[in-house]
Amino acid sequence: MRNTDFLPVSLDLIAEGILITDAKPLDGCGPEIVYANRAIETATGYSVHELIGQTPRILQCAETDRAALDRIRAALDAGMPITETLVNRKKSGENFSVEVKIVPERDELGNLVRFISIQRDVTAEIREQRRLRAQESSFRLLFEENPTAMFVVDRKNLKILKVNDAWLNIYGYDEKTALSLSSNDLRPDTPY
Fold first, then answer.
1. Range(s) within the chain of domains with CATH label 3.30.450.20
2. What is the reported pLDDT for 3?
3. Taking residues 101-128, what's their average pLDDT?
4. Cα-based distances in Å from 163 to 68, 86, 118, 155
5. Sign, CA torsion 178/183/188/189
6. What is the C-alpha to C-alpha distance for residues 16 and 38, in angstroms, rounded to an integer?
7. 190 with 170: CB under 8 angstroms?
8. 25-45: average pLDDT
9. Are 156 and 137 in contact (CB under 8 A)?
10. Is the per-residue pLDDT at 1 higher than 50?
11. The pLDDT of residue 2 is above 60
12. Domain 7-126 in CATH 3.30.450.20
């Protein structure tokens, strides 16, 4: 038997949230939380004592992706590791996005004994990704719908990378031909 007395202290030093559940059959209420580190308290607002004996469903909400939960369930049924991003709910009612990595732990005979879940709050990352997508969409619309002829070139070789419809109308090229040109081809007497 291994000495694991040091594990709770060590796991409390980790910045990511850790939940350990038993490997009860997943039917019914599901596996119960048998360990939670301090980072889970910080992330969710639930105390360790409130989480022990509960199932991870305590963190789920209406915005939690059902398909992601189904993929997790299938992986757990198969005893396989899985990584998913979920929307969970804090004790305060605030939603947050979390990347969850779940790995099964087996005993010496290969029987599932518990699941270890490492959880990382990715709310800020997802918010930034959404902001960048919206900004990119705005710039794309500005470029494509602009009545002024616009084109994008590679700074190293001056090859045309993108043109808008106004540019195509003014210069009379089709898009395929335009993208085979460099800016020097448009005005060979003017070095860019």
1. 7-126
2. 43
3. 93
4. 39, 39, 46, 15
5. positive
6. 9
7. no
8. 87
9. no
10. no
11. no
12. yes
